[in-house]
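ok trying this again, last paste got cut off
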Amino acid sequence: IAPIAMEQGLRFAIREGGRTVGAGVVAKVIA
């Protein structure tokens, strides 16, 4: 899975193989 730049508090969803394997809200930005 390629890393994605995201803003703090932004909702995200991790998709793999066409299905969602993870979802949530970014609580902290990790550099």
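PB: full thing came through this time. The chain is about 0% helix and 40% strand.
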